[in-house]
Design brief:
- The protein is an alpha/beta fold.
- Helices cover 23% and strands 21% of the residues.
- It contains 13 helices and 13 strands.
- The protein has helices at residues 14-23, 40-53, 55-61, 81-88, 140-144, 160-169, 187-194, 206-210, 223-229, 278-286, 314-328, 386-389, 408-413, and strands at 29-37, 68-75, 107-114, 127-136, 177-180, 198-203, 236-241, 256-261, 272-274, 309-311, 329-342, 357-366, 371-380.
- Strands 7-6-5-8-11-13-12 form a seven-stranded mixed beta sheet. A four-stranded mixed beta sheet has the order 1-4-3-2. The protein has a two-stranded antiparallel sheet with strand order 9-10.
- α4 links the parallel β2 and β3.
- α6 (160-169) packs across α7 (187-194).
- The termini are far apart.
Length: 466
């Protein structure tokens, strides 16, 4: 299949084929095949058989009032104009009654050759197709929504083609309500909005949502500008700062048609949740009888409180994500998310499960020889029952070293400091902890500088502590 660019499928109607093409960015086009053969002689004979056995369909091709044009395309090579004409001449036996129209033909005939990658130019094709173009795909959307043209970007912005794959798996459509609980700069909700969905973006990092630096300086652009750029502001319901580890943001009832996300796994951006850092807890314990944050001076614009955040482990992220989907998706709604894995450790059983959700698809995208990421699509099949599903165990197996996504940031960066210690606080790093790490490094993920607690304050962010 890797060397074969053509996939033969049965589509009931032409109308359905056009709808598929209008949403697809992975296809080039959809064709109606009239004949195929291992070479041109065999293909011409097969076309004659089609002509004799399908008179009604053939009359559509040879109708005198229908304009037409020919296109020759070969997978694996390029033909000159004369070489293309020589191939068209092989079908001179067809009595074309219509007129040629190269710009807007009513009948767009394609001669397709499958030659194979890097095949010699003079080698014969493996297969030849005589087909009619039904519809071109929307590959143009990949360029239209390219990150190179995007008004507002971040370090984790998802490329446009992958974002459209995600939106299609989520069945984003007019009238549907889609949320991304880790929205970042909004690539996934932007493509869902393109297909007509109403979207909500949520993130714990207010800097990302509002477009300010950690020091509170405006960047000049924000997530809203991306929707303005593509004329989709009417489909953006809201941007929310929230803590995904809690369940108090939305009413506990089914309301979303899809949840799409690329959860943070700690490589370029670590997951965070609201909580006090160990140093803060220690300081508070030492000064229990004194105020933790002093009152601001009169007439100042200081904020009284800065929300602290702590590391949010991957197993907790996945547990909360599946629980959120089970509670808040409508029956038939979809959860679509990306899961990175170590190739040598990955097993299909690694994918987290929930009794309310059914795994629909698990699509692999190779990233390197060592790593891949999987587009996981789950569909809600069972209504959430708090008495049955309210106290399910956490996804603890994600801590196990044999699981492909366990401690993914540590494996990817070869950095023992990224080991997830929530389940094993006595973890001791050594030179053998991660293959390729030479030095024993002190510290842990929980002690890394906070990337989100500066987010709330686009103006001055000042505080005083003892």
């Amino acid at each position: 299949m890797e060397d074969n660019p053509y996939l033969m499928v049965d589509i009931p109607t032409e109308e359905l084929a056009v709808k598929i093409a209008q949403r697809s960015v992975g296809l080039k086009a959809i064709y109606e095949v009239f004949s195929e053969g291992k070479n041109y002689e065999e293909n011409c004979e097969a076309l004659k058989v089609f002509r004799d056995t399908n008179p009604e369909r053939w009359s559509y091709i040879s109708h005198a009032d229908r304009t037409f044009k020919f296109t020759v395309e070969a997978y694996g090579r390029h033909y000159s104009r004369q070489e293309s004409i020589d191939r068209i001449e092989k079908y001179r036996f067809i009595e074309w009654k219509g007129k040629v129209n190269l710009k807007q033909p009513e009948l767009d005939i394609w001669i397709l050759e499958e030659c194979g990658a890097n095949a010699p130019h003079d080698s014969p094709p493996k297969r030849v197709f005589f087909a009619r173009l039904v519809a071109m795909s929307r590959r143009d959307l990949v360029e239209t929504y390219s990150l190179k043209k995007r008004a507002y970007l971040g370090t984790t912005s998802m490329e446009s083609e992958i974002s459209f794959f995600t939106a299609n798996q989520a069945l984003a459509r007019p009238g549907s309500l889609v949320i991304d609980p880790f929205v970042g700069t909004g690539s996934l909700v932007l493509t869902a909005a393109h297909f007509g969905a109403r979207v909500i973006g949520a993130d714990i990092d207010m800097c990302v949502l509002t477009g300010v630096t950690k020091a509170g300086k405006p960047k000049g652009k924000n997530l809203y500008n991306n929707f303005e750029q593509y004329g989709l502001t009417d489909r953006l319901v809201s941007l929310i700062r929230w803590d995904h580890s809690t369940r108090n943001c939305f009413r506990q009832k089914p309301m979303f048609d899809a949840i799409v996300c690329d959860p943070p796994y700690g490589v370029r951006a670590g997951a965070k949740k609201v909580g006090k850092k160990p140093k803060t807890l220690a300081r508070k314990a030492a000064h229990d009888n004194q105020p933790h944050i002093l009152e601001p001076p009169p007439n100042s614009d200081w904020h009284k409180h800065v929300t602290q955040t702590v590391a949010y482990s991957v197993p907790d992220v996945l547990s909360d994500l599946l629980d959120f989907a089970a509670r808040n998706l409508v029956v038939g709604g979809r959860l679509v998310y990306w899961l990175p894995t170590l190739n040598e450790q990955y097993k299909p059983s690694d994918v987290p499960q929930h009794p309310c959700l059914r795994l629909v698809a698990n699509s692999k995208q190779p990233v390197s020889l060592r790593f891949s990421r999987h587009l996981i699509t789950m569909q809600k099949e069972v209504e959430y029952d708090p008495n049955v599903h309210g106290n399910l165990p956490r996804i603890e197996y994600s801590f196990e070293e044999g699981v492909g996504h366990a401690n993914f940031a540590m494996k990817y960066l070869k950095d023992p400091r990224r080991h997830d210690k929530r389940h094993n606080p006595d973890f001791v790093k050594s030179k053998q902890s991660v293959e390729g790490v030479e030095d024993d490094k002190e510290g842990a993920a929980d002690d890394q500088p906070d990337v989100a607690d500066a987010a709330d304050f686009p103006n001055k962010r000042q505080k005083q502590t003892n």
